[in-house]
Write a structure and sequence with these properties.
The protein is of the alpha/beta class. It has eleven helices and twelve strands. The chain has an eight-stranded mixed β-sheet. It has a four-stranded parallel β-sheet with strand order 7-10-8-9, sandwiched between helices. α7 packs parallel to α8. It is elongated, with a radius of gyration of 20 Å.
């Protein structure tokens, strides 16, 4: 039976991705067609290393639009590896082209070394992908069906966060989160917003929680189920977090540290606000663990499960 494929860009050549990918396929077999976009020689090396025995069919890029993709099957688009510094970019370039031409609306990318691959041109892969689709309004959602989080600012140095917090940016993130849940998860989420300052208080005359965050929540609360601002040090307590589906914070580690503490690998990173679904495991390439066969595949399993249902 023909089905819409999931594009997979493994990411860095030296990473744990293929280990967790092979482990995932041993545990999850009833999946949509998967199209790997990577270098064949690198893939063959990893197949041999981890003794993966499922057949992978190589296809030519020119033939892909006439191809019928079958469930449970894995396909490969070989990406030449002449310039390693451009390798990951070339893999993404092919994936973006296939999405823009309507082949599919589902993509997973493996972990990326931001400082090496993105060359400091982008704060993270979220911004890199959004830029390639000319999207100015987007958000990072670390998703678990029990509780998700969304940072207003992403991989930004902490000293710059307060300068980047604006009413428009907070409003956009709340609206994008609400729309994503209603469109893809089919329910209206309960959203909490965290304050920027400890206890939502400030010794300075200008308090961002009162002057910036609170007016946005007041403006949106009649349209969206949103409350706050809440102090960051107590919102993740068990009896508090169970009242919400999503907690929106002002900066990256304010919300990612507690969500990873609570769920560890049982969460995925979704870029919301794009014209397609882009998902990635919620961890890095972990080069030091590459090839050791000790990495946890749970986040990739959850990524595959999420897209398989869409």
């Amino acid at each position: 039976m023909s089905s819409s494929p999931i594009l997979i860009v493994p990411g860095e050549k030296k990473s744990i991705f293929f280990e967790i990918f092979f482990k995932s396929l041993k545990l999850k077999s009833d999946l949509s067609p998967l199209i790997l976009i990577c270098n064949k020689e690198n893939l063959d090396t990893e197949i041999k290393r981890f003794k993966f025995n499922k057949h992978i069919q190589q296809i030519k890029l020119n033939d892909i639009y006439s191809k019928k993709f079958l469930k449970k099957k894995i396909y490969l688009i070989n990406v030449r590896n002449k310039d390693s510094s451009l390798y990951v970019h070339n893999c993404f370039k092919i994936a973006f082209k296939l999405i823009k031409k309507g082949l599919t609306n589902k993509m997973i990318n493996g972990p990326i070394n931001k400082s090496k691959t993105l060359n400091k041109k982008f704060l993270g892969v979220t911004e890199f992908v959004a830029k390639n689709f000319n999207q100015n309004k987007f958000a990072m959602l670390i998703y678990n069906k029990k509780l998700s989080v969304c940072p207003v600012t992403t991989h930004l140095p902490l000293k710059l966060v307060a300068k980047k917090i604006t009413k428009r940016k907070i409003k956009d993130k709340i609206i994008i989160v609400d729309e994503f849940y209603k469109k893809f998860l089919k329910f209206k989420p309960r959203i909490a917003v965290i304050g920027l300052n400890p206890h939502c208080e400030s010794v300075l005359k200008f308090n961002e929680d009162i002057k910036i965050i609170k007016p946005v929540i007041k403006y949106l609360k009649n349209k969206i189920n949103v409350k706050g601002p809440f102090p960051a040090d107590t919102i993740f307590l068990k009896n508090n977090r169970k009242k919400f589906d999503v907690i929106i914070g002002m900066y990256h580690d304010q919300v990612l540290t507690p969500i990873k503490t609570i769920f560890e690998y049982d969460a995925i990173n979704i870029t919301i606000g794009l014209p397609f679904l882009r998902v990635t495991p919620d961890h890095g390439p972990n080069e030091k663990m590459a090839g050791k066969n000790m990495s946890n595949p749970m986040s990739l399993i959850r990524s595959l499960e999420f897209l398989n249902k869409r």
